[in-house]
Prior knowledge:
Layout (H helix, E strand, L loop, with lengths): L7 E3 H12 L12 E3 L2 E3 L1 H12 L3 E3 L4 E4 L11 H14 L4 H11 L10 H4 L2 H9 L8 E6 L5 H10 L4 E4 L13 H10 L3 E4 L16 H18 L1 H14 L1 E6 L9 H9 L7 E4 L1
Parallel strand pairs: 6-9, 6-10, 7-8, 7-9
Antiparallel strand pairs: 1-5, 2-3, 4-5
Amino acid sequence: MIGTLGGNVKAIPLQKYLFLFTRLQPEAERAYDFVPYQYGCFSFQANQDLASLARQGYIEFGDQNSIRLIQDINYLDGLDLFEQSNLEAVKEKFGKMTQDELIHYTYANYPFYATRSRIAKDLMSDEEMAKIDAQKRHFDEPMLFTIGYEGLSLEQYIKRLILYDVRTLCDVRKNAYSQKYGFSKFTLEKACAGVGIRYVHVPQLGIVSEKRQDLRSQKDYDILFDEYERTTLKENMDALLYVRSILDSDKRVALTCFEKDPKQCHRSRVANALMRLPNIEYDLKLL
């Protein structure tokens, strides 16, 4: 994309060009996923890839958030004709737009991705802002959610939280570290903050990794989680009540861990324990 656009492009427009490029790809094959962010559509993975390309000497960052190719290589040769055609189509239709024109176009045509923007009111008309506001998700019903990030990109995960108006994410892993990009504590907390979601790590409600090494069947999981309920949950009632206090104040809270299947994750036992507490005013939903 950078090469197609002349070898030098600014960071914010590049995110928009990549977004528009992915709109031309089949949904299941899109190169990047995006979330509504501070300046509109944003891919955390694309941003991370740029940092990797810089470390490896393919690009360099310059003044005013510019990104420049520093190797004279025709990268288009590595793509199929369909992708080359789509890159050229993006260049032809959008390459001559100013940054503000490009942002305005994406906000007007994809208003959901402008719902977290800091600058939308400066660029959009009242009518256009009404369309953006109509895309914002807000629900009054108190709700406890559980969600695992297995099989999801960071963007898909954050987008799901936004769609269900999750206001606080409670990470119940013992160690909030992941080899999968985006799901270690610092990165996940930063991503949540960027879309207005509070992140809270509650390690007291986690299970030490050593106990999870030999889980081969659902029965193994059930035995482990039964023990977890008898020990860790009872011994850390203060931590459970802390999560309950967040529910009472923030109303829409998600418990998170790794596993996609809630039956194979202790977060389901945490959720059930919360639902058994007195004076429940919220429902439980699996994401």
